[in-house]
TrEMBL record, chains A, B:
Family (UniProt): Belongs to the GTP cyclohydrolase I family.
Xref: InterPro entries: GTP-CH-I_C/QueF (IPR043133), GTP-CH-I_N (IPR043134), GTP_CycHdrlase_I (IPR001474), GTP_CycHdrlase_I_dom (IPR020602)
Superkingdom per UniProt: Eukaryota
Name of the protein: GTP cyclohydrolase 1
Taxonomic source organism: Datura stramonium (Jimsonweed)
Amino acid sequence: MNNALDEGHQLVDCIEDAVKVLLQGLGEDINREGIRKTPFRVAKALREATKGYKQKVNDVVHGALFPEAGLEGGSGQAGGAGGLVIVRDLDLFSYCESCLLPFQVQCHVGYVPSEQRVVGLSKLSRVADIFAKRLQAPQRLADEICTALQHGIKPTGVAVVLQCLHIHFPKFESALPDTSHQGWVKILVSSGSGAFEEEKADIWTDFFRLLNFRGVSKDNAHPGVVHQSWCPSKSSNKLEQSNSAMTNAVVSILRSLGEDPSRKELVGTPCRFLNWLMNFRNSNLEMKVNSFLLGRNNNPSPCGKIGDTEVLICSELSLPFWSQCEHHLLPFQGVVHIGYYSSDRLDAVGRTILQSVVHFYGFKLQVQERLTRQIAETTSSLLGEDIMVVVEASHTCMISRGIEKFGSSTATIAVLGRFSSDPAARAEFLQSLPNFCST
Amino acid sequence: MNNALDEGHQLVDCIEDAVKVLLQGLGEDINREGIRKTPFRVAKALREATKGYKQKVNDVVHGALFPEAGLEGGSGQAGGAGGLVIVRDLDLFSYCESCLLPFQVQCHVGYVPSEQRVVGLSKLSRVADIFAKRLQAPQRLADEICTALQHGIKPTGVAVVLQCLHIHFPKFESALPDTSHQGWVKILVSSGSGAFEEEKADIWTDFFRLLNFRGVSKDNAHPGVVHQSWCPSKSSNKLEQSNSAMTNAVVSILRSLGEDPSRKELVGTPCRFLNWLMNFRNSNLEMKVNSFLLGRNNNPSPCGKIGDTEVLICSELSLPFWSQCEHHLLPFQGVVHIGYYSSDRLDAVGRTILQSVVHFYGFKLQVQERLTRQIAETTSSLLGEDIMVVVEASHTCMISRGIEKFGSSTATIAVLGRFSSDPAARAEFLQSLPNFCST
């Protein structure tokens, strides 16, 4: 029996047990078919997402340093002696040490070769990935990649710039739907060593000019500044009821990953993760919304008129939602578009009610197909039998596991009544939808 | 001893031997440090890129079908009975069966659930990947993904739309550099089954409207039309000298991958691949360009004036190049920007000469760092000692192996003379560069 494998197996089992405690704390039946294998899937995903703890930079860089001449004569820098090399737009993901949710990273790495040798380009990405696949904070991630490359390649200098995206936490304070909500906290950090150690070095300007093409500028970066508050869990004051069994379960997950739960940055992590997770606890409340609140006739006649008033397709677009994938216990998040027939658009109160419906079904362990159906059914009881619902979402489980499909998104559709039978009605509504941006 | 592993090991060895024959046919010393391990790397990459031959759809889909209710009553479609589900923008890559080069695929998959069950979203991507990781043509790839999902999930219908990008082959006919050159052949194909079987079905309109956000429309797709000519190797009439040992080596690679080299689509593949590869054979020609051809003083004084004429930074931007990565025997391709000091810009003849320099160093087994240095050195002998060269490239080896960093690009810089010592000169030149698009 292989000890390492055996140990790995036990640790996964330990994570599975912890996930069962979390699911029960959320009020779920852990034998329900959709979540029966969720503990197994979560453990597997976490193990994959933190495999960097067991990887070594030297194993990656070893054998990938190639001799490469510099300039003859030497009135400049080029090739293996001084010619700046930049690899841009590497998509990575990491796990936030503050709240245990995954965050996306767009990584740009540069180095100045020395001693007439260069490193294989893909190794810059592979080394970055070793440190991304751990519990991280953006600045520390940049620093660790930078230091590892400096030690591994021994070049004249290394520069690392990371653009990190972290999911927003819901703000319940605002009563009205916040349609300006972008869904993501963005931050840019940088780290430099050797020729890049000095923040004001001219070579940083060269580096950023070549990233500038994509909207990055040095003014956005604050090398050396630690962004304590980038994770929205730290600014969330909401306190959720969770029990000590759940807290202990998260602590045991941290320990299983090889982390020290008493490390300063991790002390509050179980509580912050549970603050997020408890948004999605199962509730047996029924959604009862009085359609008279919407101030409207909820049964427009199918002939296209209510009395003498013509009935048109109206829509409420881009209602934001948060949800948690019941298969992987990971966030998915995006917008809901609702189409209906009416002689006039909803007022502010009506829109708030629709947003409440969206939140009611979003804040659960979910799958997007069910969310779409539930919103359509409830909306139908409010706005009449002719309803079309489109949900567009980014699924963290599509990027933060082995699959790593950055930039992918999922759209689901429910059609009721006239929208089901009339392709022209669907086409008119679909044409009115704004562009969905997955980040 | 595990027989499957043993067999795999022998096949990889067989690919390694074939790659050695190819390298020797290119005139390379297979013991040179940069390419000593290239046979091993090529074999490993090809094995990884064609692992789909050994994967089964049922292994992926099994256990990932979840019960999910449809609408009660049934005056519409939603959830697990009829609600359209679309996963968009899945980045994949495949290998072209016509020429053995990798091509990029942006994959969009939709299906209509039936029998109150849905499939895990990531499985749509994983099933697509099984068929992408084989030697393929775009329409066949779309058809195979579609058929496999129809059989595996048994839904009401499946739709697959693929946007494929294939590297252009160099056109030597044009004497002048083609600055409008985009570097990529793009094609859009689609395949449908069940509710999507009929091309004119209204549900195709719904599907394309949701892709429309990203510039895809049904008018660009021609379901059922086979694009015989999408691979540029088929329209290339250039005949290269290659020997029968090299042809036999490519045939043995095809056989090692489990393909039948006598399959109709593969009969011409060894010849087409060698037509590509022989562009990059080693030549001992020296690059001798007479600077008087450029009709200029090649030593502008460092004070910023030649006689009474003021000397400014001039640039030749976006000169296209093709090259072949010597570490992985895979294309990298992009643009070269050259900055220099002069009182006037080059004329058409001068630009043609610079493009020749770029092609001369591009058409070899290369690394980007060396290419950049060589262009800078040669340009310096033509345009004076103050030279800056920026090379921007997409490396196929960054996407078509295990690393799969779609959208990444690499920039390398060489600076000579004044550009080496004057940050403001570098900044001025860098600011003039156009946006680089990796696809």
